[in-house]
Design brief:
The chain is mainly alpha-helical and 340 residues long. It has helices at 29-52, 59-85, 87-92, 107-125, 129-154, 192-213, 219-236, 255-264, 277-285, 299-320, and strands at 7-8, 14-20, 23-28, 168-169, 188-189, 247-249, 295-298. The strands form three sheets. It has a three-stranded mixed β-sheet, with no helix packed on it. A hairpin with a 2-residue loop joins strand 2 (14-20) and strand 3 (23-28). The termini are far apart.
């Protein structure tokens, strides 16, 4: 399947490689864009702290300390979740767990890790935790929107085959270090990486609106946490990297079933890699069945359902706390001193 109007994606996994003392140290676009996203989010959060913090003079500086713990939570939580989802591989290759620069972060894990360590550190430095979490999480989604461009740059988290006008194609042959499926190179797929950037941008702007209109501290956090699960679950319907994901598969369409079928057709080698890519792609174009796994519900969608429930429960709990309620602004006074 190739759309005549598909856009060609620019894949640039490695910006350059530094050779030092016999070791190759690559600078990968994924890591660079995640770092840029973090710095942009941290800077914005400090600006939001001036407007929405309890102490406009001290809170921005305090949040800078919190920010580094948020970064640790994003990386550690995201990596732990990715390893758990792909435990078959990492159980056999434990040293690969440390190769964060190659990609492989589950953002649910990163979100939970960032919130947990961020709230803990906020308490320690004297910030009001739920107030800080509201503007910090809002800024964080802008950072995630930038970081998700790193997924596009390495070809990770790619979409299903598509003939829509906004479909994209990845180059054939793929550059070294790409995470895109080589058997789909040159074929049109859903641009799920930009979808996820748009998802994060939507949450960022929703967060800004909620910050201006919230009734209690923590309202923004709970709302964005639940909405993240909803939006992420929707994007999951368009993902095409089902060989690398977990969940509940359609009967007979699990990765092992598909690999066995491809091997019986002579399309895959003993390791499950596609050995005859031109024939495989031709069969895809003709609509042959059982060439790709089919998820009924992905692990991310299941976690998304949980986050919707937890976010809703957190919303109700925080709304019930009198100490978190925001007093309404006083009514404006008329010229004679009476309330308007």
């Amino acid at each position: 399947m190739t759309s005549a109007t598909a856009y060609n994606a620019r894949v640039w996994p490695e910006i350059f490689t530094l050779e030092l003392f016999g070791f190759s140290l690559p600078l990968r676009s994924f890591g660079l864009l995640v770092a840029i996203g973090f710095l942009v989010a941290l800077s914005l959060a400090q600006k939001l702290a001036v407007r929405y913090g309890a102490d406009p003079k001290r809170d921005p500086e305090r949040f800078a300390d919190v920010g580094w713990w948020i970064l640790i939570g994003v990386i550690a939580g995201g990596r732990c979740a990715f390893v758990l989802v792909n435990f078959d591989h990492y159980g056999a290759h434990p040293l690969d767990i440390l190769k964060v620069w190659e990609g492989g972060l589950v953002m649910y894990g990163g979100l939970i890790g960032a919130m947990s360590l961020g709230i803990w550190k906020a308490k320690r430095v004297g910030l009001e935790p739920w107030r800080a979490c509201d503007y910090g999480l809002t800024a964080g989604f802008l950072g995630q929107a930038i970081g998700r461009l790193g997924c596009l740059a390495v070809g990770d988290d790619y979409g299903k085959l598509s003939d829509l006008p906004w479909a994209i194609t990845f180059p054939n042959p793929l550059p070294a270090g790409s995470a895109f499926a080589p058997e789909l190179a040159g074929m049109s797929v859903h641009p799920t990486q930009p979808y996820m950037t748009l998802k994060a941008l939507s949450l960022f702007f929703i967060g800004l609106w909620l910050l201006r209109n919230k009734k209690f501290h923590g309202q923004v956090t709970a709302s964005l946490f639940a909405l993240y699960g909803l939006f992420r679950g929707f994007v999951e319907f368009f993902r095409g990297d089902d060989f690398a994901r977990g969940g509940i598969f359609k009967d007979g369409f699990a990765p092992d079933d598909i690999t066995a079928h491809l091997q019986s057709l002579g399309l895959a080698d003993p390791y499950g890699r596609i050995s005859d890519i031109p024939r495989y792609q031709e069969m895809l174009r003709e609509g042959a069945e059982k060439l790709r796994p089919e998820l009924l519900v992905s692990t991310s969608q299941m976690v998304g359902m949980v986050s919707i429930v937890l976010g809703s429960a957190l919303y109700l709990y925080l709304r019930s706390r009198k100490d978190l309620r925001i007093a309404p602004a006083p009514a404006p006074m008329s010229q004679n001193g009476a309330k308007a």
